[in-house]
Each structure stands twice: as structure tokens, then as C-alpha cells.
Amino acid sequence: MTYTSSSTLKPAQVSESELLAAAAKGDQKAFRVLVNQYLPLVYNYLYRMTQNHELSEEMSQETFVKAYRNLKTFDCRRPFKPWLLRIAANATLSELRKQRKVVSLNALQEDGGFNEMEHQVSEDMTLRLEQELDAHQVQQALNRLDEKYRNVLLLRYQQELSYEEIASAMQTPLNTVRTWLKRGLEKFKDTIQEIAV
Amino acid sequence: MSFAETPACTRAHDLLLEASLALPDEIFLNEQDEAFLSEHLATCSRCASEKRRLSVLTTSLRRLDTIPVPSGLEERIMQAVEADSAGQATKTEQRAATGGRLRPLLAVAASLLLLALVLPSLMDGNHPSKQHHRSEVAMNNPQPAAPEAVRQSKPQVMQKADPATQQAAPTREPNKLVSPQQQKVKVLIAEETSPVDTSRIASAAPVLSQADDLLLPMEEGEPFGDPVGNLVGF
């Protein structure tokens, strides 16, 4: 492949599969182009999941190192983005399970707390949802969701992955993804209502 | 909020959720569903309001601000990639080099270990020839068989090895002359045949219940795969 540095290489010049094939053979310059292209996406996803810049930085590094190490096993004809996000998702889930800091909505529901709150939400309050929500509220609501619901919603709405790609990224059956997306959206709506109260 | 007002509302709610999960260039509903939904929304203010709410929510999710990547992160990632691949290469080389060099040493170590394991049992009289001698003694002295056999055969062996220990030998308890392996077997047999100590089971119960608490609950639909970067089968 004829390029000297990442800055001289434009995505139009070399296809992604060519870059991946070159990187799999140990071409770090080719891999740098991929890092440059996908880092914002990976970093944003990790930050939305963890709400921690330092952790997101560490995990971005871990994601790309693992991706580079395992490129030899990756079929370069397949799309790179879901594969990369799968590595990032695995790292996130593993980290969040360690921390267990996030309050699960399921736990609230089991305690009966959620149902009580649900009853307190008046019709007037739900009307506030019809106004534009600010990013802080959205993030707050996302943080309160169970990891799996937050994950599928971010992969769908932020990363615009197809259902199949999400299933692959999360190593979960397609029908489960479908269910999680519906439930996730419902729970997100309910959580936003709680926050609006 | 419950949407079980009417069956039509329930169906409309399901379709609204489906439609809300579609990406901008995707069509999720078929013509029939589309027709039903628009007809229902025209007459049901509650479902129409739900549609607006879902639309705001999905727009907000799509429009979440892009978080800027910290400066220098790309460079740090590339340095980590470089260091990792250099480390991987060194590890492979070292494994190849040390594996080749250490192979004869490992063979010698394994032989010595085997010898160390076998030697004590030979010294204790487990050798076939000594076992034969012991069975002869046992036949001549049937009461009590095993301790007598050990007592009669062992001092002879010790006498040859170290005369100084000869005087001490007769004062020893018969079971002291049994090898550690034989002693362990005896203890195990004694434990196996002794009655069950229920107080020990009772004292273990709280510990077991604590151990139960330590097990992580399995979440609904949780994948069974390795959570950390298992890339096999992708």
C-alpha cells in the first residue's frame, strides 16, 4: 500500500477493507487511519455508558489495542464498526459490573418504588415531555437505565447500528435485542417523566 | 402509564414503539399498520400525545451532543498499540527461545521429581519383595497382623541403615513406623467410617449461605459469552 502517513491518506483513496487487511498484517499506519476515523464514535459511546472521562479514555485505549491484536481473526469483508463496538461494549459491561454503581430501574421496580413514582406522575407533567429535552436530562435518564437498555438505545440511536449489528455487538439473540429496545425506550420515557417531576 | 385503554390503543402503542425505533432511512411499518395507526391517531388524543412524546424522546437521543475526544488520545492509543505488539512479539520470541533452551533441564527436573516421589515408598517397604516378606510374617503371626509385620520387618531395615537408631526403634509406637502416605490413608479411612458429625455440618451452614449471597444474579437474557472481548465466532 502506498501511503506515508495518516494525514496523507484519505478514506476515499483506500477502502476500509484494504486498511483492515493492511493493519492485520501489522501495518500500524493503516491502523492509525482507522483509529482516527472511529475514535470519536468509540469515545462517545464509552462516555455515554460510563459518564467518566478518565475511564472512557482508558477503555478506548483498551478497545483499540484489543482490536489491533485480534485483527488477524477478523474477516475484513465484514463491517468494522459493529465489531469494534462489540469490543467496547464488552469492556464497558465488564467495567460496569465491577462497579455496580448505577441504580437499576429493575431494582426500583422490584422494591415497589418505581410503581409509586409512576402513580405520582400527573398528566400535566407528561406534557413537559413534548417540549425539547435538554441533554443533561437525557443523560441523567440514560444513566438510570439498566446497562443492557442503555447499551441498546445508544447503539441504535447514537451509533445507528441495525438490529443485527446490535445483536452481534452484544452477543445477544436478535429477538432479545428487539425486546430490549422496546422495553428500553419505554423505561427511558418513564425515567424522563420521573426526572421531569 | 398503562396503554391498555382499548385493544386499539394497545396495538397503536406497539406500532408507535416499533416506528420510533426505526432509523431515519428505515421503514418499519407495513401499509396496513400505517393505515391503522393514522386512522387511530386521528381519533385518539391520548395516543396522538404519546406519539409526540416518543418523537421528542427519540430526537433527543439522536441529538445527544458529541463529546470531544481528549487531545492526544489518538497518539496515546497508537503508542499503546505499538507497545502491546512489541510486547507480544517479545513474548513469542522469549517463549520460543527459553522453551528450546530449557527443554533438557525440564526433562532432568521431571526425572528427579519422579524419583523423589517413588523413593520414599521404596524405603518404606512397599517394594514388591518386601511386601512378599511381610505377607509371610503376617501368615506366621496372624494376631494382630499389620502392626506386628511392620514391627518385625522395620528394625532390620533400620539396623542396616543406621546402628544409632537401633536403640530408639523398639521404644517407638508401632504406627510411627508407618510411612506418611500410609498414615494419611489410615486417617482418611477412619474419617470415612466414623459416624457423621452433625455439629460440623450445622456450623458450616451460615458460611454456605454467605457463599450463596456472593454469587452474582444472572440477568434476564444475559449472554453467556466471555464479557471481555471474546472475539471468537464473530
Based on helices, strands and strand pairing, what is the structural class of chain B?
mainly alpha
Sheet/helix structural class of chain A: mainly alpha
Sheet of most strands of chain B: none
Q: What is the overall number of helices of chain B?
A: 8
Mean pLDDT of chain B: 65
Q: Specify the helix fraction band of chain A.
A: over 70%
Strand content of chain B: under 5%
- The SSE order of chain B reads HHHHHHHH
**Strand tally of chain B:** 0
Radius of gyration based on Cα positions of chain B? 39 Å
Unreliable spans of chain B are 132-176, 200-234
**Head-to-tail CA distance between termini of chain B:** 39 Å
Query: Which blocks of ≥5 consecutive residues of chain A have pLDDT under 50?
Result: 2-8, 101-127
Total helical elements of chain A: 11
**Which percent bin holds the helix content of chain B?**
55-70%
Which band does the percent of strand residues of chain A land in? under 5%
- Which pair of protein chains has the largest interface, and what are the residue counts? A-B, 69 and 48 residues
Mean pLDDT of chain A: 80
Tell me the series of helices and strands of chain A, N- to C-terminal.
Answer: HHHHHHHHHHH
Number of beta strands of chain A: 0
Describe the structure.
- The complex is a heterodimer of chains A (197) and B (234).
- Chain A is mostly helical.
- Chain A is built from eleven helices and no strands.
- Chain A has helices at residues 16-24, 28-50, 53-70, 80-99, 105-111, 113-120, 123-127, 135-144, 147-158, 163-170, 174-196.
- In chain A, helix 1 packs across helix 2, helix 2 packs antiparallel against helix 3 and helix 10 (163-170) crosses helix 11 (174-196).
- The radius of gyration of chain A is 19 Å and the shape is elongated.
- Chain A starts with 15 loop residues before the first helix and ends with a helix.
- Chain B is mostly helical.
- In chain B, helix 1 crosses helix 2 (31-43), helix 2 (31-43) packs across helix 3 (45-62) and helix 5 crosses helix 6.
- At the A-B interface, helix 2, helix 3, helix 4, helix 8 and helix 9 of A face helix 1, helix 3 and helix 4 of B.
